Amino acid sequence: MIRVRKARIEEMPAVRELAIEVYTDTFAEHNTEENLQAFFNETYTLEKFTSEFSEEGSVLYVALDDLKIIGFLRLRISHEVEDQLGKNTIELQRLYIHRDYHGSSGVSRMLMEEALAYAEANKFDWIWLGVWERNFKAQKFYSKWDFERFGEHVFQMGDDPQIDWLMKRKLG
Predict the structure, then answer these.
(1) Rounded CA gap, 150 and 89, in Å?
(2) What is the DSSP-derived secondary structure letter of residue 103?
(3) What total of structural domains would you count in the chain?
(4) What is the pTM of this model?
């Protein structure tokens, strides 16, 4: 049975491993091995995941199939879009699901429902995210959840500056 709950600090190694696996599955064909490794070495270290876990204003949920972590969701306070959406926003920074659970498992729905419930319960005005301009599958998923594009920013992938679409959803 699949369930979602708040993550525990001791789960950070498994969350990190899943993040690298999902990221590689999603982006390897469009990026060089060198750029992927540079990104992982800078952004996906165990130290970074552990420090993000304790970051003020952030929360991490895991989806489990029995005891195995099959997905996760990270929300955080970020000031990047204050000039566009105001100060009362939360960023859906990561929503990752193991490839074996894409589609009909319901994991993506469960994690998105958790993200929206958290944002609503904490009375945020907006939830927003960045999604790569070439990740059409994710864009379609977020659009189904009433996220709409409102801008873009540069996402540095090693030595390759890429464009992320910024998408928002009004809450409340």
Answers:
(1) 14
(2) S
(3) 1
(4) 0.94
